[in-house]
C-alpha cells in the first residue's frame, strides 16, 4: 500500500509542478509555466566545443588524447551544459527536491543537440531498485520521456537493470570510479544491430556510462551514444 501511496503522491506533485505558475528556480522571479525565467536560462553555462566521444572540452572540438589512446566502450557523447553554477544546483533540484518541471526543461535543451537515427532506442540510465525506492523516481527517465515523444523513439525501461547498488561515484576518487562500476549492470534482451542513446543527467569521469555501454555491446548494440544534461571538466 505504501508504494501505491508514494506513486500517487509523486504523480500529484508532478501535475502541480507542471501546471501551476512557478518561480524561476535560479532567481525566484515569476516564470509562468517555465522552470526558469528567460534571463536565467540564457545565462546558463553552455558546454563549449568538446571531444565528440567523451564530451570533455577540447580545442575546436577535436577528439581528446584519452579517447584516441584508450577509447571507451561508448561511441559518442553530447552535453548541453558545463556542470557549473547554477546548473549543478538545478540538477540537484530535480534529483533531491523533486522539482519535476526541471526534467522537461532539461529535455528541451537536449532536443537541439540533434535527433538520433530513426532506428535508435532511448535508454535512461538505470537506478538500482533500492535507490529508486529512496528517491521515488528516476530523473533520467523523466528527462527521456519528453525526448522519446518528440523524436518518436521507444524508451527501454525494462531490459537493462542496475545489478549492484554501488557506492555513489561522487564519493570516490576519480581513479577508483571505473573499478566501482565493474559488473554494475544486467541486460536481459538483445540489442543486436541497434543504436542505443543513453540519457543521463551528469557525466563526470564517464565510468558509469562506459560500463553500461560495455554491457550493451556485449548484447549486440552496434552503437552507443550518450546524451547528458551536463559534463564536468576533466581532472587533468
Automatic annotation (TrEMBL):
Pfam families: DZR_2 (PF18912), Pribosyltran (PF00156). Residues 135-234 form the Phosphoribosyltransferase domain. Residues 16-68 form the Double zinc ribbon domain. It comes from the Bacteria. Belongs to the ComF/GntX family. PANTHER family: DNA UTILIZATION PROTEIN YHGH. This is Phosphoribosyltransferase.
